[in-house]
Structures
1.
Amino acid sequence: MQSIRLRRRIVLVCSLVVLTTVRCSEEPLAPPRVPGQFTLVVVSPTNDDGAALVELDGAGVTSVGADSAEVLTDMRDGRLRVVVARRSPGPLVLTLAVRDTAADLDAVLLEVADAADAPRPSLAGYTIEIRK
């Protein structure tokens, strides 16, 4: 009788140890990735820009496009450089397809050109707006 109780206790203790080990080693599940699109807008003080050079953290970007503009891309060291050039001056807007819409998107404006393709002397007053 005593040996049965002892065996039950041993089995119970072993079960608790195993359950505790398994439960403690579990990491929380990451939320599922949801692919989608971001819109990147170069907010301009002049609204008559011809082109811009933007650098993005390109890890999650799968494609880049624009209406009424040419788009050129170059990926280096995990950074995606994008040139957007309009046929006629106007707003510079990019559509970015991404793997995960929950991830943050980092963007830096490097250069802007006017309608005559001359570089702007300063980026003062320019910002980048990213819409999810």
2.
Amino acid sequence: MNVLRASLAVLLLAAPAAAQGAVWVVDAAAGPGSDFTDIQPAIAAAADGDVILVRGGLYSSFTLDARSLAIVGQDGADVQVYLGTSVVRNVGPTQSVVLRGLDRIATGWFVDAPSFTDCDGPVWVEDCTFAVNNFGGSFQPDGVVVSSCDAISFVRCATLGAQVKGLGGAGLRATGSRIAAWDCQFEAHEGPIGAPPHDAGPGALLDGGFLFASGCEFVGGAGGKGFTYTVAGVTHCTDGGDGGDGLLATGAAAVFALDSSFTAGIAGNANINLGCTPGVAGEAVAAPAGALTLAAGLARSLQLPATLCAGSDATLALQGDPFSPVALAVSATPEFLFSAGLQGVLLAGAPFALFVPGSLDASGALNLAVHVPLLPAGSPEAQVLRVQPAFVGGSGHVVLGAPSMAVLVDAGSCP
């Protein structure tokens, strides 16, 4: 514990100013200590590098356009971003965005999917869910859309497509982007019932770009069921739709997967006695030859509280191979560096503090009780920390694990 306290103190002194900022508190109930009752006004008031802490409640969608901010839900709170479509776009190469603990982003009727577009700087999304309840109309049916993003990471997130445009939307639709995902679920919606046959979407659709996945599930949607109906005493039927692929990769897409599962969507049934045809089941993976690399080994992870209040105690939870030694890199600087040899994407950039807290137990777990130090005099209100574990296997081979971020908050600004 003393080693960890010292490492955090050194990091605070070495952290670049861009990672530090003021704290704004959003509370739908306008509780004590809050600054705003919705997220978008807080974004308008914040300067780049600031942190927006969100208490439990129901909030409107928001847009981050060419901004460098962290929007973090309070630990244990139910933060629902429900009304409209949330958008993150035009993140510059020297900017970065962090979203954590936001639930059901863009859930609602007749809205487009939440999207991340034209992001040159790193985007970190942790403990968020994306689900759209569309049906009909001309709206985007996917759970989340990523387009032209150079470094976007999803940690413990879940996405679910919608029923729209006669199709079941994909859980994730990505175009020309570099994506890293740990312990996520990408699930497509089933195709709607009726005519014409409604096919389901894939769990994830990757059009070019790169995807690293560790401990993830990719689930294709079930094909839409055929429909039997009677008009003027005559019974009719419609054909069933095709099931979606677990993962659909097209173009020059490349996928590196570790300890991840791919499940094909089942075919939609139909009334064959009336001459209608069932759909065709999807494939677990539909990709060009050589596009998918399946690495051997287990997914490994770290989980931190979303906020670390100076002067308080916290617990870090690690999971991996039994008895494996582990080291933690703690950084205020974002990074996105894939290494096949390390079986992961490094997200904790230099300069970083490195320490070795011990080894995992026989079950492959380690819980660390940590005392968070007080911030030095003159420190900013908040600082975003990126923490990523590296595990050593029995052969001495080092592999990376799932990262986790936390906002280190001055005692006087803690929610």
3.
Amino acid sequence: MLKNNNKRHIKINFAILALLVIVGRLYDATTTYLYTPDLTNETNVLVKLFGVGWTSFAIIQITLVAIIIYLLYFYLFKFKPDTPPEKNLNIKQFASYLFFNDSTSFHKMFYKTPKNKKTLFASIGYLVSMTLISISFVVGTSTTFLIISDNYRKIYKQGIPYVLYGLIVGLIVYFTIRFFKIEFTKYKQTDNEHDRQETTHHNSTYAQ
């Protein structure tokens, strides 16, 4: 019964997060269109650097959203992290094992591609979806104020885009840490359950 309730909770969680990803991107795109129909004032990198128009922009956005939702599905329904052979790892050692299959390579996370690709895909599914939801609504709201407020337009020119870029970086860091904390909590619960089973088995054997 508990397992069925957990599966139902995960399905609901996935549906809500996937919907928020889609609604967030639609909100951002709609406010962008209302503010700058020809994209001349759009600060998105795709527009600024590559000069893409609305058709290409929409195709890229739809493709990215589809990939992100699939990776979120993979994280919530398919991802099962490998269990470290060592017990009582701290969170840094556990994060190292998740990405590199050993507990001593935490420093490599800052400059090397993870060895464990399923963990990489799962972390992207969680990290990018959560970051995208947050930033879509923040940017969409910022663009709404650009449409309705002359004062905000003046403030925006003083460096708000850089604040938004900084917020993106901060959210990526926050949700990366949160991903490892979530998986570490699962690991500790499994580890504790395994210890209890061993203790119970030992006591029953001793009693016989």
4.
Amino acid sequence: MKKLTAVLLALVLLSGCAAVPGEVTEPLSQPSQPSLSETSAETSSETSAETSSGISAETPSVSLPEGAGLISLSSYTVRPGGYIVVTAQGAGGAFGFSDMFGVEREMTQTESGVYVCLVPVRASCEPGDYPLTIEGGGLSFYGVVTVEPRVFEQQTITFDDTVVAETINSKEANAEYYNKINALKYESVPEKLWEGGFVLPLRTKYTLSSSFGLLRTYIYTDGKKSDRHMGLDMAVTEGTPVYASNSGKVLFAGFLQLTGNTVLIEHGYGLKTWYYHMSEIYVSAGDMVEKERQIGAVGSTGFSTGPHLHFAASVNDINIDPEILLSAEPAL
């Protein structure tokens, strides 16, 4: 009888610690560098049942990975353009790990003592199962993350030859973007700066002219170029106010030949939002901005065919679908 009681007690304890959750174009003249398409730039996302991180709302019916009680994932399934949140409780200190795509990541401690890391999934990521092993801070974890299929739309746009020559086909424009922006992609504030959910940067009706992940072809007299559009193009009247999607630190505010009047905001833990082609800018690099503060006005500067706001989101250098970010606050 004592042995039976001990076995039952052990099963109860085990069940109690196993709860888990559920690419605008970059320097085309520098092919060895990551394209803006896959980092921080400009294009209707599919409608599907997703959570705030582009994750399937359905919890996979699989056995819980060893160590899930201490290191856990927000989900084990995710779609291209989404992200997962890795959390670690009871870690003995900060530590790094290689994510399921071989990218080095760092766990950062929050005010509550929990360590967190946002792991983005590129829009171009092939569907399949990706093993993830994490060891550090006295903890260990092994699991398999499933990237689900996602089909993106295609779009063809005709551009004025002069605009093309001064932007995407200009070595100077591409070099300027790379030199001023590339390092900022990796600049991360080790604390949560955002407050609540992210909001649309426009308060008026707009037309979504290009969606995230769109496979775009640009046509002009001397040829054509193709890339993946890594944001939302929100067509609206020039001069329309543009607001910060959430609180954060302005890392860049200025004119770039490629993207026009541009603002980049870091919201903490590498989570960023980008605002392109504006006619005016009302903030400066280094400013701490509050959620919904006006940061500029809609325009058509840089590589653009007409007044619109290109709104993008990224985790450091990898873009995520802004509509996913807008759908719910990241769960830390």
